[in-house]
């Protein structure tokens, strides 16, 4: 399959976020990544239901919602109603992970589970067949602009192996520090979705930057 590019709105200009979404609509990106932070699970606070609901009116791309929050099961239905196409929760935040994944799937959204840098891939062995996405954090969650963790390449390889062995069709998504230098190696190891925040939105020409990233992974 073609590699999916998912620019993260966490790095966008919040004062002009509708314009940023309109720009992404015109880009070669397939998804728009929407990070939700609660100030508890991670030391930062970002978006909530009202912002997602407002953006849904303008977004023409898949809305990829990443819940970096405690007790995400309490809010799954609301995020789906607000416009989420994909809902990813953190393994570390879910006491009853299977139940939360099934809850996501029952809404009609695609279900993903994210792993923090310290969490081994093998913890997903009992749930992998139920997942649409495995999100591997390549930085510590909570802030943009962090340095890419090199161990991520090995984790992608391990996730790909687990997916193949289980017969799962889950995609592997990478979030944090993605750029033109590490994207090809991530794809080679098995990544399917690349989240890019600062790399896109700090560019003077984000459309060309997205295109360059897309062409880099194609080659």
Automatic annotation (TrEMBL):
<keyword id="KW-0170">Cobalt</keyword>
<feature type="binding site">
    <location>
        <position position="8"/>
    </location>
    <ligand>
        <name>substrate</name>
    </ligand>
</feature>
<feature type="binding site">
    <location>
        <begin position="175"/>
        <end position="177"/>
    </location>
    <ligand>
        <name>substrate</name>
    </ligand>
</feature>
<comment type="function">
    <text>Catalyzes the reversible epimerization of D-ribulose 5-phosphate to D-xylulose 5-phosphate.</text>
</comment>
<feature type="binding site">
    <location>
        <position position="35"/>
    </location>
    <ligand>
        <name>a divalent metal cation</name>
    </ligand>
</feature>
<dbReference type="GO" id="GO:0046872">
    <property type="term" value="F:metal ion binding"/>
</dbReference>
<comment type="similarity">
    <text>Belongs to the ribulose-phosphate 3-epimerase family.</text>
</comment>
<feature type="binding site">
    <location>
        <position position="177"/>
    </location>
    <ligand>
        <name>substrate</name>
    </ligand>
</feature>
<keyword id="KW-0119">Carbohydrate metabolism</keyword>
<feature type="active site" description="Proton acceptor">
    <location>
        <position position="35"/>
    </location>
</feature>
<comment type="pathway">
    <text>Carbohydrate degradation.</text>
</comment>
<feature type="active site" description="Proton donor">
    <location>
        <position position="175"/>
    </location>
</feature>
<dbReference type="InterPro" id="IPR013785">
    <property type="entry name" value="Aldolase_TIM"/>
</dbReference>
<dbReference type="GO" id="GO:0006098">
    <property type="term" value="P:pentose-phosphate shunt"/>
</dbReference>
<keyword id="KW-0862">Zinc</keyword>
<protein>
    <recommendedName>
        <fullName>Ribulose-phosphate 3-epimerase</fullName>
        <ecNumber>5.1.3.1</ecNumber>
    </recommendedName>
</protein>
<dbReference type="Pfam" id="PF00834">
    <property type="entry name" value="Ribul_P_3_epim"/>
</dbReference>
<dbReference type="InterPro" id="IPR000056">
    <property type="entry name" value="Ribul_P_3_epim-like"/>
</dbReference>
<feature type="binding site">
    <location>
        <position position="175"/>
    </location>
    <ligand>
        <name>a divalent metal cation</name>
    </ligand>
</feature>
<dbReference type="InterPro" id="IPR026019">
    <property type="entry name" value="Ribul_P_3_epim"/>
</dbReference>
<dbReference type="GO" id="GO:0004750">
    <property type="term" value="F:D-ribulose-phosphate 3-epimerase activity"/>
</dbReference>
<keyword id="KW-0413">Isomerase</keyword>
<keyword id="KW-0479">Metal-binding</keyword>
<dbReference type="GO" id="GO:0019323">
    <property type="term" value="P:pentose catabolic process"/>
</dbReference>
<dbReference type="InterPro" id="IPR011060">
    <property type="entry name" value="RibuloseP-bd_barrel"/>
</dbReference>
<feature type="binding site">
    <location>
        <position position="66"/>
    </location>
    <ligand>
        <name>a divalent metal cation</name>
    </ligand>
</feature>
<feature type="binding site">
    <location>
        <position position="66"/>
    </location>
    <ligand>
        <name>substrate</name>
    </ligand>
</feature>
<feature type="binding site">
    <location>
        <position position="33"/>
    </location>
    <ligand>
        <name>a divalent metal cation</name>
    </ligand>
</feature>
<dbReference type="GO" id="GO:0005737">
    <property type="term" value="C:cytoplasm"/>
</dbReference>
<keyword id="KW-0464">Manganese</keyword>
<feature type="binding site">
    <location>
        <begin position="142"/>
        <end position="145"/>
    </location>
    <ligand>
        <name>substrate</name>
    </ligand>
</feature>
């Amino acid at each position: 399959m073609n590699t999916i590019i998912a620019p993260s709105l966490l790095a966008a200009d919040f004062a002009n976020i509708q314009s940023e979404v309109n720009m992404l609509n015109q880009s070669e990106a397939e998804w728009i990544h929407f990070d939700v932070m609660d100030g508890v699970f991670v030391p930062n606070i970002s978006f909530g239901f009202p912002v997602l609901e407002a953006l849904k009116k303008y977004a023409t791309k898949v809305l990829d919602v990443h819940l970096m929050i405690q007790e995400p099961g309490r809010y799954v239905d609301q995020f789906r109603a607000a416009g989420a196409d994909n809902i990813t929760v953190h393994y570390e935040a879910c006491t009853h992970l299977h139940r939360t994944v099934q809850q996501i799937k029952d809404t009609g959204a695609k279900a993903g589970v994210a792993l923090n840098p310290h969490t081994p891939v093998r913890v997903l062995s009992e749930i992998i067949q139920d997942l649409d996405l495995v999100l591997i954090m390549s930085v510590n969650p909570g802030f943009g602009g962090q340095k890419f963790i090199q161990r991520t390449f090995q984790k992608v390889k391990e996730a790909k192996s687990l997916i193949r062995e289980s017969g799962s069709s889950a995609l592997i998504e990478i979030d944090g520090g993605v750029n033109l230098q590490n994207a090809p190696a991530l794809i080679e190891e098995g990544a399917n979705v690349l989240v890019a925040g600062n790399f896109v939105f700090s560019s003077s020409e984000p459309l060309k930057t997205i295109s360059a990233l897309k062409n880099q992974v194609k080659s």
